[in-house]
Write a structure and sequence with these properties.
There is one protein chain. This protein is mainly alpha-helical. It has one domain: 434 Repressor (Amino-terminal Domain), CATH 1.10.260.40. Helix content is about 60%, strand content about 0%. It has 5 helices and no strands. The two termini are about 35 Å apart.
C-alpha cells in the first residue's frame, strides 16, 4: 500500500511544467502536443499504405521535403491538403461527435 509520501500528483506536475490550465503556456503546450500527435498519425498512415514520402508527395503534387516536414510536425497541412493526403493514402477524413 502506498503512503501519502509515495503518491504522485500528475496534475501538479503538468501545471509546473506547462502552467495552469487556460494559461497561454498551457495552451501552447497542448497545441504542440496535438501537432506532434497528428504528425505521427500521418506518418503511420503513410507507412500502412506502403508509400514512400516521395510517392505520397507525387500523388498530392508536392515535394518529398514537404511530406517530411509534415511528418515531423514542422509544417501543418491545410484542411484541403489533409484531405488530399488522406485520399492519396486510400483513406477518408471523418468528422464525428465526441460523445
Amino acid at each position: 500500500m502506498k503512503t501519502n509520501e509515495q503518491l504522485h500528483d500528475v496534475g501538479a506536475e503538468i501545471e509546473r511544467e506547462f502552467g495552469e490550465v487556460g494559461s497561454e503556456s498551457y495552451s501552447n503546450a497542448m497545441s504542440e502536443a496535438w501537432e506532434e500527435y497528428n504528425a505521427q498519425v500521418l506518418l503511420d498512415a503513410r507507412k500502412r499504405a506502403g508509400l514512400t514520402q516521395a510517392e505520397l508527395a507525387r500523388r498530392i503534387g508536392a515535394n518529398k521535403s514537404y511530406i517530411s516536414r509534415v511528418e515531423r510536425g514542422l509544417t501543418i497541412p491545410t484542411v484541403a491538403t489533409l484531405y488530399r493526403l488522406a485520399a492519396a493514402m486510400g483513406l477518408a477524413v471523418t468528422l464525428q461527435p465526441l460523445h
